[in-house]
Structures are given as C-alpha cells and as structure tokens.
Amino acid sequence: AASEKKLLEVKLGELPSWILMRDFTPSGIAGAFQRGYYRYYNKYVNVKKGSIAGLSMVLAAYVFLNYCRSYKELKHERLRKYH
Amino acid sequence: MNENLFTSFITPVILGLPLVTLIVLFPSLLFPTSNRLVSNRFVTLQQWMLQLVSKQMMSIHNSKGQTWALMLMSLILFIGSTNLLGLLPHSFTPTTQLSMNLGMAIPLWAGAVITGFRNKTKASLAHFLPQGTPTPLIPMLVIIETISLFIQPMALAVRLTANITAGHLLIHLIGGATLALMSISTTTALITFTILILLTILEFAVAMIQAYVFTLLVSLYLHDNT
C-alpha cells in the first residue's frame, strides 16, 4: 500500500493518496517543521568541525525568500524600455 | 524614485497575513541552545560571546540589578542580530519601525524607573535635583530634570530607528547613484562604489553599536534605580 512509505519510494500514480495521507493537523505541521529543523541542524551545525556553510546556507535562503517576497516591487526597477 | 526609496520599509504582509511576525521571529533560529558541556563550534562561539558581553555589562550592578541580566542580554542579542540581518540584500529590518522600538524602550525604561520609585523612593526623587544648585534655580531645574527623565524612552527609541533607517536609506541612495553613474562616467562610479563599500562597513559597525548603546543605556537607567 502507499501508506507509511518515504516520499522517494512512492510511485507517481500513488502520489495523490500519499499526500492526502499526511498529517495536516497543527501538531502534525509543527512536527514536520521540527523534524526539518533538526535534520538540517544535525547535518550541518551540530557537528564536530562545523563550517561557515551551515550558517550561510540559512542566510542565503533568507535572502532568496525576501527577494521572492519583494519581487513585485523589484520588477519595476529592471532596465527595460517597456515595464 | 520617491516611492521606490521607501518601499523596503513597508511592513511585509502576504495575502493580508502578517509576514512580519515570521521575520521578527527569524533571529531566534540562529541562536540554538545546547545543554552539553562541550557543544558544537557554532554554539560554543555564541556562548563565549555572550559570556564576554554579560561580564562587561553586568559587572557594574549590585545583586538586585543583576537579576536583569537575562533581559539585557536577550535585548542586545535581539537588536544586534536584527540589525545585522537587515544588512542582507532585500531583507526587512524590524528595528526601522518606530512602533517596535517604542515597544522595547518604554517598558524597559518604565520598569527601571518604577523599580527605583518603589524600592528607593527618596533616592529616586532626589535625582530630580542635582547637588549644589543655587536655591532660586530649584523650581526650573526640577522641571528640566523631569523633562529629561521623560524624554529618555523617546530618545532610546528614536535613536535606534533613526540610525538604522538612515543607514539603509544611504545605502539605497548611493547604490542607486553608482548604478546610474556607470553609463555616464565610470571613474565617478568607481568613487561612488568605494563610498558604498565604506558605508557598508560603517553600517555593520552601527548595527552592533546601536544594540550596545540601547542596552547600555537601559542598564544605566537600571543602575540609577537599584
């Protein structure tokens, strides 16, 4: 069945039922964020010889998200003849 | 150009939902906690820095004032990290909003003053009259001292807002000027670019200094009142 399989092992046809199976309650979403945070933290920061990459990837993602947020105003500042 | 200049200071709202809450909460992600004796490099660095700052700042207080150590240390970490994150391209800096700085300054100042009034009433009231003033000057001086007391939270908030906002505006303006000058005269553009580099270094310093000044002044008001 498509239940309880990891995302990479789910076949394409089973994808909608897999997505509907996920836990979308508030505690489920909070759990997903917590798991994601600890996955990143334990892989890049909580290591013996952590480098600057752990912090810079977070800051780069922050810059990218802010760019997406302000794209609407920024697209008027492009060097084009017709906006 | 006028509208473009100030769009980066608009409170971010996405589909009517306050995105600004997430942006204000973001620096907390960058300060992980660890219960270990020997933690990873990131946490060790932050703990060392925090110990350095707290020793330097809390050493002047007595035991009653030192109960504020947690508050002051979180304050300087928050303002410092928010200001430094604001220097990243396209980001929104919450400390440019006067509303937020007033929300930080007024409760902290009021807490320090009210603590002083409750625990050391005579000494707190005595602050309104410096020693050795000639008798005819006393009424005017009390009025002046009261005004100077009540202006403290306003000055705290406005100082932080104005410094950070002015820095961001200057960077926007000089960056725009460099871009516009590149097609007209490359030498002038290079000079402007050098100014931009120097300004960015200044802004890094200002970001941290403003955090320090804010916290230092609150700690000073606390020292007067404990």
UniProtKB/TrEMBL annotation, chain A:
Transmembrane segments: 50-68
Subunit details: Component of the ATP synthase complex composed at least of ATP5F1A/subunit alpha, ATP5F1B/subunit beta, ATP5MC1/subunit c (homooctomer), MT-ATP6/subunit a, MT-ATP8/subunit 8, ATP5ME/subunit e, ATP5MF/subunit f, ATP5MG/subunit g, ATP5MK/subunit k, ATP5MJ/subunit j, ATP5F1C/subunit gamma, ATP5F1D/subunit delta, ATP5F1E/subunit epsilon, ATP5PF/subunit F6, ATP5PB/subunit b, ATP5PD/subunit d, ATP5PO/subunit OSCP.
Name of the protein in question: ATP synthase F(0) complex subunit f, mitochondrial
Membrane topology designation: Single-pass membrane protein
InterPro entries registered for this protein in UniProt: F1F0-ATPsyn_F_prd
Subcellular location: Mitochondrion inner membrane
PANTHER family: ATP SYNTHASE F CHAIN, MITOCHONDRIAL-RELATED, ATP SYNTHASE SUBUNIT F, MITOCHONDRIAL
Translocase found in the keyword field: no
Family: Belongs to the ATPase F chain family.
Role this protein plays: Subunit f, of the mitochondrial membrane ATP synthase complex (F(1)F(0) ATP synthase or Complex V) that produces ATP from ADP in the presence of a proton gradient across the membrane which is generated by electron transport complexes of the respiratory chain. ATP synthase complex consist of a soluble F(1) head domain - the catalytic core - and a membrane F(1) domain - the membrane proton channel. These two domains are linked by a central stalk rotating inside the F(1) region and a stationary peripheral stalk.
Chief localization: mitochondrion
Lineage, opening ranks: Eukaryota, Metazoa, Chordata, Craniata, Vertebrata
Keyword Transport in annotation: yes
UniProt keywords, alphabetically: Acetylation, ATP synthesis, CF(0), Hydrogen ion transport, Ion transport, Membrane, Mitochondrion, Mitochondrion inner membrane, Phosphoprotein, Transmembrane, Transmembrane helix, Transport
TrEMBL record, chain B:
Topology class, membrane: Multi-pass membrane protein
GO molecular function ontology, one term from the record: proton transmembrane transporter activity
Subunit field text: Component of the ATP synthase complex composed at least of ATP5F1A/subunit alpha, ATP5F1B/subunit beta, ATP5MC1/subunit c (homooctomer), MT-ATP6/subunit a, MT-ATP8/subunit 8, ATP5ME/subunit e, ATP5MF/subunit f, ATP5MG/subunit g, ATP5MK/subunit k, ATP5MJ/subunit j, ATP5F1C/subunit gamma, ATP5F1D/subunit delta, ATP5F1E/subunit epsilon, ATP5PF/subunit F6, ATP5PB/subunit b, ATP5PD/subunit d, ATP5PO/subunit OSCP.
NCBIfam families, per the entry: ATP_synt_6_or_A
UniProt xrefs under Gene3D superfamilies: ATP synthase, F0 complex, subunit A (1.20.120.220)
Name of the featured protein: ATP synthase subunit a
Catalytic activity: H(+)(in) = H(+)(out)
Keywords carried by this UniProt record: ATP synthesis, CF(0), Hydrogen ion transport, Ion transport, Membrane, Mitochondrion, Mitochondrion inner membrane, Transmembrane, Transmembrane helix, Transport
PANTHER family from the UniProt entry: ATP SYNTHASE SUBUNIT A
Domain of life where this protein originates: Eukaryota
Name of the encoding gene: ATP6
Cellular component GO terms held in the UniProt record: mitochondrial inner membrane; proton-transporting ATP synthase complex
Family as reported in the entry's similarity comment: Belongs to the ATPase A chain family.
Subcellular localization(s) per the UniProt record: Mitochondrion inner membrane
GO process terms (BP): proton motive force-driven ATP synthesis
The organism of origin for this protein: Bos taurus (Bovine)
Pfam families: ATP-synt_A (PF00119)
